[in-house]
Every structure is written in structure tokens, then in C-alpha cells.
């Protein structure tokens, strides 16, 4: 991996245990060994809140891969909550979902999602999307530093 490539940690949230295992396995094959798991949006939010200073805290997830449809706090509600948490406003957020209709994709994008992948996710598509979103995130952060 190059110096500017994303290395982790990653938080995945999906209410289906098999989907989480498959995604974690795919990430592992892509070289991402530091993967945290949450069984739903509520648990994902608690994981994030557990890191006192948000994304700048060592060991905190630097990337979120979230199922859009989960019981309780669904993916869109989680996205809104994450974007309002101090320190988590800009963490890369990708939906991984079976929802293939255009309305869901548009809603996710308008809500601030950085990417959208359809299940089942294959390794090459996942790697490409992570690299693409991480590059955009790095450029956005660099722009903020220069502006500040």
C-alpha cells in the first residue's frame, strides 16, 4: 500500500451476522486486519461514542462501512447521528446494502454518505471504493488545513 492509502481501522455495522463475517473476511483478504464490528446502528453509535475525541483518537475507526437497512437505528439515521458527533463529522461513510433503487442511492448521497455499494460486495469493488473515498477524504482534509 502506498503512503496515502487507507490502512484502517474500519467499523462495519450490519444486523446480519453472516454479512458481517463475509465483509470482514473480504476486508482481511484486501489487507485490512483492524476491523471492528457492530450488530446494528445503536451498537455502532456506542462504539463511536466510546472514543472520547472522535476520529483523532488512536484505535478509533477511520472508515465506516454500514448496512443501510437495520432495525432500530438504520443506516441513514446513523449517518445523521455520526455527522453530528464532534470529531466524526468527516469520517468516510459508505453504505453497503441490497437497496438498489435510485431513490435510496440519492437519499444516501444527499444525507452525506461518501459512497454506496450493492450486496453482495466483491473484493475488487470494495477495494476500489475504499481507495476512491479515502482519496477524496484526504483531499478534503488537505483543503481544510490550507483554508484554516
Keywords:
single chain; 5 strands; 148 residues; five-stranded parallel β-sheet; Rossmann fold; 5 helices; alpha/beta
Number of domains: 1
CATH architecture: 3-Layer(aba) Sandwich
- The span between the termini is 29 Å
The CATH topology annotation reads as Rossmann fold
Strand order of the largest sheet: 2-1-3-4-5
CATH class label:
Alpha Beta
Tell me about this structure.
- This protein has 148 residues and is α/β, with parallel strands linked by helices.
- It has one domain: 3-Layer(aba) Sandwich (Rossmann fold).
- The protein has 5 helices and 5 strands; from the N terminus they run E-H-E-H-E-H-E-H-E-H.
- Strands 2-1-3-4-5 form a 5-stranded parallel beta sheet, sandwiched between helices.
- Strand 3, helix 3 and strand 4 form a beta-alpha-beta unit.
- The longest helix has 25 residues.
- The mean pLDDT is 88.
Amino acid at each position: 500500500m502506498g503512503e496515502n492509502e487507507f490502512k484502517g481501522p474500519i467499523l462495519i455495522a450490519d444486523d446480519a451476522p453472516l454479512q458481517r463475517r463475509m465483509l470482514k473476511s473480504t476486508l482481511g483478504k484486501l489487507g485490512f486486519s483492524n476491523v471492528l464490528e457492530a450488530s446494528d446502528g445503536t451498537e455502532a453509535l456506542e462504539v463511536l461514542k466510546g472514543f472520547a475525541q472522535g476520529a483523532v483518537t488512536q484505535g478509533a475507526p477511520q472508515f465506516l462501512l454500514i448496512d443501510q437497512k437495520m432495525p432500530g437505528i438504520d443506516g441513514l439515521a446513523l449517518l445523521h447521528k455520526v455527522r453530528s458527533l464532534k470529531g466524526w463529522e468527516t469520517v468516510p461513510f459508505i453504505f453497503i446494502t441490497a437497496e438498489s433503487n435510485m431513490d435510496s442511492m440519492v437519499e444516501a448521497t444527499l444525507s452525506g454518505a461518501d459512497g454506496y455499494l450493492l450486496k453482495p460486495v466483491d473484493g475488487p469493488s470494495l477495494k476500489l471504493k475504499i481507495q476512491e473515498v479515502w482519496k477524496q477524504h484526504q483531499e478534503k482534509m488537505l483543503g481544510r488545513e490550507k483554508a484554516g
